[in-house]
Each structure stands twice: as structure tokens, then as C-alpha cells.
Amino acid sequence: MKLEKHKSKIPAKVYEHLKNRIKELRPGQIKAIGAGLFKNKNLLVCTPTASGKTLIAEMAFLNSVDKGKTLYVVPLRALASEKYDDFKKLYELHDYKVAVSSGDLDKSDTYLENYDLIITTSEKLDSLLRHKVPWINKVKTVIIDEVHLLNDVSRGPTLEVVITLLRQLIPNMQLICLSATVGNSEIVAEWLNAELIKDDWRPVELHKGVLLDNAVEFFKE
């Protein structure tokens, strides 16, 4: 669907950022807007890889940047660095300050007070919360990427604690959770008090098959 057809549903400041680089919205993005993306609703977005989940997170950030900070939580330091590079190129041109914090767990990184979009890992965010960073009450939006890791034996407990603490410390925050692989999405959405967004659209058709002796035999539909 053409972006311009949804202009009336998108805040003007968000539309201005999108119009020069986005021509069409994907199904999951349209569903997210309809479910309250711009109305402070919590969302659990479960759509396939490359279906546009990151843009949903970006729209949430752009909508709330004048009201407070955004935390973008990822599972790995490498992914944090990748997101930082991408968002820095996009948003520092518009005077939005982007930071990454994923290193020393014993530091409170006081410099983060001055940034609009903070990309971090769940372990580092757990550390920041335990350091009682004073800027946490300035957070308006929290984005949790790869939220299905709640079920991971190593990272799941920390992520669950972080989400629980954030909900206690910032009761009016907007929580946007993203995943391509949440198996029990209805239960997770209920726990998050979030609207569930599900869609099967993907940019490239997926075929399933079996590889044997260097040959692939695809399943018939």
C-alpha cells in the first residue's frame, strides 16, 4: 500500500521523515498503525524476517522523540553496533542524538542523559537499571528486538527482569516488541499487555525442501 494513502493516519512529523525514503507500507506496518502505534499502545509484532518490523520501531521512536527517550534493546553487542551505525546515519542528520551502550556492565554511562535514542543489550540495560540511572524516568518508548529470547535459557531471565523493572519504573511507557518466531504469541502478548500484530507476508516467497546428495527436493504445496 502506498505510503501517501495512509498519510491521514500518520503524525505529520513522522510522515515528513518517511516520505523521501519510504514509498510503500507493508502489511504488518499497516496493521501496527491500526492497532495503535501512534496512540501509545503496547504492541507485539510477529511477522517474518525482512517484513518491515524495524520501520515499525522507527515510527514509534519518531512519534515520541519530542516526549522522551527511546530505548532500543537487542540481544547481541554486534547487533547493537549494527543498529547504531544504521540509525546514526538516518537520524543525526535531523539533530536526533543516537548512542550505543553495550560494554562494561560496571559503568552507569552517565553520558546517555544527553541522547534521544539509546541502543543497548538486555544485559547492559539490566546493569543501568541496577545503577539507578537518573534519566530512566525520561524514557517514553522501549523497543525489544528478538523478544522470543524470553524463552532462551541464558538470556531469557535477564530480559524478563528488564521488562518487568521497566514496567514498574515507567508505567506510562510504550512497549514495542518485535519477533519473527514467537511460538506462544497470544500468551506473550497478554503478559506484555500488548496488542498482537501477526502477518505472514514476506518479501521473498519461502519454499521448503530437503537437501540430499547436493540436490534439493522441494515439498509440493
In short:
The protein has 221 residues and is α/β, with parallel strands linked by helices.
What labels describe this entry?
alpha/beta; Rossmann fold; seven-stranded parallel beta sheet; 7 helices; 33% helix
Report on this model:
The protein has helices at residues 12-18, 27-34, 53-64, 77-91, 122-130, 156-169, 185-192; strands at residues 43-46, 69-74, 98-101, 117-121, 139-145, 174-179, 195-198, 209-212, 215-218. By secondary structure, it is an alpha/beta fold. The protein has one domain (27-218): 3-Layer(aba) Sandwich (Rossmann fold), CATH 3.40.50.300. The strands form two sheets. Strands 3-4-2-5-6-1-7 form a seven-stranded parallel beta sheet, with helices on both faces. A two-stranded antiparallel sheet has the order 8-9. Helix 5 crosses helix 6. 38% of the residues are buried. The model has no long low-confidence stretch (mean pLDDT 92).
Strand order of the largest sheet: 3-4-2-5-6-1-7
Taken from the alpha-carbon principal axes, the silhouette is: globular
Unreliable residue runs: none
Q: Given the structure, what is the number of helices?
A: 7
Distance between the termini: 27 Å
Instruction: Indicate the percent of residues in helices.
Output: 25-40%
Q: How do the helices and strands follow one another from N- to C-terminus?
A: HHEHEHEEHEHEHEEE
Compute the CA-based radius of gyration: 18 Å
**Largest sheet, if any?**
7 strands, parallel
CATH architecture: 3-Layer(aba) Sandwich
Tell me the name of the CATH class. Alpha Beta
- Strand count: 9
